[in-house]
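Quick one, T. Sequence first:
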Amino acid sequence: MLKQGLELKQQQKLSPLQIQTIKLIELPVQELEQRIRKELEENPVLDEDVPNEKEDDEAPREVSLSEYKEDDAIPSYRLRSDNYNSKDERPQYNTFSVKESFTQSLQEQLGYRNLTEHQYAVASFLIGSLDDDGYLRRSIDSVVDDLSFRANVETDEQEVLDMLKVIQEFDPAGVGARDLRECLLLQIRHCRRTPEVENATKILSNYFNEFTNKHFQKIMARMNISEDELKAAMAKILKLNPSPGGQIDDSYTDQAQQIVPDFLLEYKDGELKLSMPRFSVPELRVNRKYADLLIEAANSSEREKKEAAAFVKKKLDSAKWFVEAIKQRHNTLSSTMQAIVDYQHDYFIDGDETHLKPMVLKDIAEKTGFDISTISRVVNSKYIETHFGIYSLKYFFSEGLENQEGEEVSTRELKKALQECVDTENKRKPLTDDELVEKMTAKGYKVARRTIAKYRDQLGIPKARLRKEL
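Structure tokens:
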């Protein structure tokens, strides 16, 4: 038996302006400028205004964008944004470039080698197979297979190994290694041959497992060397770079080449001053041709002209939403960043991490009245330049734990205290996790052993046994 009934559902539908604003909030400043350029290219109604342009008497009258009403049938005006004075000089802003692409650097070095076209193809494929640290983590067999199936290059293991040796001669030293041991050996062969370098080479070649497990007595006994000789050899090894690929940034996109801070925070005369100097909405106006079309259509009964006017009005609506969304983006970003600065006021005075309070997205959402999702969009991919460095907005957010006085402290402060404990420990007898708990307790931090282990891993600090030194 079928039953019929009515069911009421409440469904929120976002307006075009809300959708536009959400999309723009997510964009960092460089991408915003590209988005504005795109809108100018795609919306034929709009032209970018030229400051100080002389106007003739026949130009459509100038009004603010805010004067435009939805029910205006055929408005005739210039469209101008309200938040930028054309007489003001547009501010300059610092950009921060990253280094040359890792892959590009190796390819450039490859070009100087006297190789056949076939050898070059094999070597070039190998370069593309290296990971971010500069290692070849794949087996030679799999590289041979991939060259055949993916690059249509027939080769064999010996040729791949020969080309790998060529790459291993490139800068930075150690590139193209298949494991850490090979990476360090590739680097130390470039060192001047001294007794400590010879001992270091023997340790890496013959006693690498003993070295990584800190079995120093075994190494001294088997190599018949003194503790001082072992220390000198280890000093050479510890100066080598375990991640040669990390010297050069491989994120070679336009976005990654430059970091352009969205905010500037200055500390002057005892006050923090926040600004968004890069921000500027281009001055937009209705294209003269379309403005004339609107005026003509207003006094015409021709169907084609009415349709053309309707098209222009549609594009006009789009322009209105776009410029209004940019303004809302500016207000949202400005309010959010100001709330972060207010919340972390003591930290922003001097950049001391111990002054960084626990702060989560919800804290800033409550201060601004925005949704947590909006705060998340603001924080993502945005940077601020301060008088003590440039930081991602994500850096200022961290969970918190209570100290022995019941006060909440940030996890970053706890990690800094933990790092200090490890830095000042006796390296001949490093602190165990239980001993680190005692040290942290003495400093006033109430942390469990599992918390110490978690933070130690996050900081890249090995276990006590692996931190042991002579």
